[in-house]
Amino acid sequence: MSTESASAILRSQVDLVDFIDWSGVECLNQNSSHSLPNALKQGYREDAGLNLESDADEQLLIYIPFTQVVKLYSVVVQGPEEEGPKTVKLFSNKEHMGFSNVNDFPPSDTAILSSDNLKGQPVVLKYVKFQNVRSLTIFIEDNQSGSDITKVQKVALFGTTVETTDMKGLKKIEDH
What we know:
two-stranded antiparallel sheet, 10 strands
């Protein structure tokens, strides 16, 4: 790929926060007083005082459906140096995963977050694996220090929409 087309792709990337189907978002093992909206919702995720925190152990399983099909290019996962996420596995279009079966599926991509990533440097994904994404599952397997609590300050997804079809606006055939 030439540098010119790569930079054109980067320029056309948008923050996909506006295309998240909030009614379907789930997070397993979140601390109820430090929940996923703190890291995912606009405004909240910019507030350094707000975190998503794990509850029983260091793992978090986040499910994010989209209102339309997207192409995912990169992801930002910010967190503190010690309790910030380390191993992050991403699954495209895998629904209803739980801690019991998350290791049964090969991830679409795996990232080992560096201190630069935790400060906001995006992780560029294997682009071919994220072409027609209807949902994204993010499995945070462990954190930087091996402690029991993982803290996530911000999750941001960057990419483009595939088409302008609004899934919610489509009527089911039997509705006619």
